[in-house]
Design goal:
- By secondary structure, the chain is mainly α.
- The chain contains 20 helices and four strands.
- Helix 10 (about 190-210) packs antiparallel against helix 11, helix 10 (about 190-210) packs parallel to helix 12 and helix 15 runs parallel beside helix 17.
- It is globular and about 70 Å long.
């Protein structure tokens, strides 16, 4: 043990009894396996409480007190935490037996802060104050541990720390979630944190592991949501027999539902899968983020009311995200019904009625987005930027659907077809202008890029008409490979046996 601790000498000396910010920043980037070796080397593998003993400094004989009792080898923080192999000089400057646990707390706090600084904006489902109220508790529930590990895996993926650190946290979260599922029974209440952990895990897998793993984990979250009956969450407003809950807790459940609902639609649109979560739900729309974080109640409308009224005054980015997901889901259902119509030879007017209804919802949404959240000012908000791109991509999607279902025009609805063709050209220019920034932000950004590329390929048919536009999109997708595995998935997993390569133009 003493030899291992003496092997690493620091390049800088820390002040007596303190850690400066620069030294701490270097500490958090050290290898997690090294600390695990320090904690466990030379100790009895069966010991449940490994102890870092006092040792003699090799140079001057001074004893550096560094006695650290860890809670248990079963503690998830020990099993998967990325903490450095602590140098001798750091130990020399630790002035109390509580200093090393404090260092662990600092490392945990750093990941917490990293999550809320860099990751939360993509998945705005957690109340920061509520999270911090339990995040440093020694005795956490299994669901809390699962959620925290998943958050840290995502936070690490957004940092300069080695990918191996995030992978270790990810595997720890997977193991914990599987164990938690195995403990469950029909009479046990499902924790919302368990749902959130599966949902965040799915996003991590979409970006870092594999499309299929991500889609399977998302499915676990969707089924838990259905088991919890989150789709009826706000029935408690009118049904006194249902239990009431704190507004922040309820809003966190709403936001978890809407993130899952939106993910269901965006991924299903990309690979043609049937939807899992229906839109006819008794769940109010997300409250403004400021109200959610401050705990100030805010009453919102139901999705059905928002869609009927076509309210274009909303300023909340998450609400815009959910509305666009709803339009995408309706467009997907329209396409699936239209494919069945081609088999059944139903009247074409049914197709046009559905098509016009979706266009009537999409067009004012694009105008409202442009007025309320111009793309130039949305650069700091990845959800809004992604929503802009999806809105324009849906114009391409809807026009292509016309050409698929009605490849030969019979002269009816010619005005709508001409208008759709014009909108296609305008939307294509907008998508291409967003491509440079889109490839650097939202985790789901490959979806509009792939849909756009697929539509252009369908229209091009080898004629070279859209070669330049396709090259721009392919370059954007190639730039994503390093940070987002969705940038390597051909058509986002909808081709059986696909090896997940970017199509080359």
């Amino acid at each position: 043990m003493e030899e291992r601790l003496a092997q690493k000498q620091p390049e800088t000396t820390l002040g007596q009894g303190s850690l400066d910010s620069g030294s701490f920043s270097s500490l958090i980037d050290w290898s997690c396996t090294e600390l695990d070796d320090v904690f466990h080397a030379g100790g009895d593998e069966s010991s449940p409480h490994p102890v870092l003993e006092s040792h003699q400094d090799a140079d001057n004989g001074e004893e550096a007190t560094a006695r650290l009792s860890l809670e248990s080898r079963n503690d998830p923080m020990i099993q998967t935490e990325a903490v450095p192999n602590v140098p001798t000089a750091v130990m020399r400057n630790v002035s109390s037996t509580a200093a090393m646990p404090s260092l662990l707390d600092l490392l945990h706090s750093d990941r917490d802060q990293l999550y809320f600084d860099r990751v939360h904006i993509f998945y705005p489902i957690l109340n920061e104050h509520k999270y911090y109220s339990w995040s440093h508790n020694g005795a956490k529930t299994d669901a809390q541990v699962c959620l925290q590990q998943t958050m840290w895996a995502l936070a690490t993926s957004a940092s300069t720390q080695p990918q191996s650190v995030g992978d270790m946290l990810y595997h720890g979260a997977c193991q914990r979630l599987e164990e938690l599922e195995a403990k469950g029974n029909a009479h046990q209440e499902i924790s919302i944190m368990q749902v959130q952990a599966w949902l965040l895990l799915a996003f991590y897998e979409f970006m870092r592991v594999d499309f299929r793993r991500g889609w399977m984990s998302a499915g676990r979250a969707f089924r838990l949501i259905q088991l919890m009956r989150l789709h009826q969450l706000d029935l408690s407003d009118v049904d006194p027999t249902l239990p009431s809950m704190d507004w922040v807790d309820k809003e966190e459940r709403r936001r978890t539902f809407w993130l899952a609902y939106s993910l269901d639609r965006f991924i299903s649109l990309s690979n043609g899968s049937p939807l899992t979560l229906g839109e006819h739900v008794a769940v109010r729309m997300p409250a403004p983020s400021a109200n959610f974080q401050s705990g100030q109640p805010f009453v919102t409308n139901l999705l059905s009311d928002v869609m009927i009224a076509q309210d274009t005054s909303t300023k909340d980015s998450f609400t815009e995200f959910v509305i666009m997901a709803t339009i995408c889901g309706r467009a997907l259902s329209h396409r699936q019904q239209s494919m069945a119509w081609m088999i059944n030879s139903d009247p074409a007017q049914i197709f046009w009625d559905r098509h016009q209804q979706i266009i009537a919802e999409l067009a004012p949404r694009i105008v409202a987005l442009t007025l309320n959240h111009p793309p130039t000012t949305a650069l700091t908000n990845p959800i809004l930027l992604f929503t802009h791109a999806m809105a324009q991509t849906m114009v391409l999607y809807m026009y292509r659907l016309i050409t698929e279902v009605l490849p030969v025009s019979d002269g009816t609805n010619q005005a709508l077809m001409d208008e759709s063709a014009t909108s296609f050209n305008v939307a294509l220019v907008e998508v291409l202008s967003l491509t440079k920034t889109l490839s650097q932000v939202h985790p789901l950004c490959p979806i509009p890029l792939y849909i756009c590329l697929e539509n252009l390929s369908a229209f091009d048919k080898g004629g070279g008409v859209f070669d330049e536009q396709q090259k721009i999109i392919v370059n954007a997708l190639n730039s994503l490979k390093r940070i987002n595995i969705l940038g390597q998935q051909s058509r986002l997993g909808n081709e059986e046996g696909s090896e997940g390569g970017i199509p080359s133009i």
